[in-house]
Design goal:
The chain is of the alpha+beta class. Helices cover 22% and strands 55% of the residues. It contains three helices and six strands; from the N terminus they run H-H-E-E-H-E-E-E-E. It has a six-stranded mixed beta sheet, covered by helices on one side. The longest helix has 14 residues. It is globular.
């Protein structure tokens, strides 16, 4: 497995455990995270504030179904399940596009769709 894929796996594992330090260690200082139509963040501090969402309880379960890499871009597809504070669960699928720099995440674009 390449260094870039190893970083992405470590990053996703950090979300499964809500481990801020592990997640942030995978990022460049000037990281950008965009979820089209929802938000665009710049920098580790902004990223850190979005790691956990007040609308949910506990850690999410993230399952990766496919990961591919070309040059310094890693694409991961998968599913997310997390308990909602107001009851029930959020079930969603995602496609994350990671632009890498020196085996760290420089830019992340997340495409996210809730599955009803």
């Amino acid at each position: 497995m390449t260094e870039n894929k190893t970083t992405v796996e470590r990053y996703l594992d950090g979300f499964n455990r809500s481990n801020h330090e592990q997640i942030l260690s995978c990022l460049t200082e000037d990281v950008e995270w965009e979820m089209p139509g929802a938000f665009h963040l710049v920098g580790k501090d902004a990223f850190d504030k979005e790691i956990e969402n007040d609308a949910f309880v506990g850690n999410p379960t993230i399952t990766t179904t496919r990961m591919v890499e070309e040059n310094d871009v890693v694409i991961a597809e998968g599913a997310v399940r997390v308990e909602k504070k107001d009851g029930g669960f959020l079930n969603a699928v995602f496609c994350d596009v990671f632009a890498m720099e020196n085996a760290k995440i420089k830019r992340l674009t997340t495409y996210f769709v809730e599955v009803k």
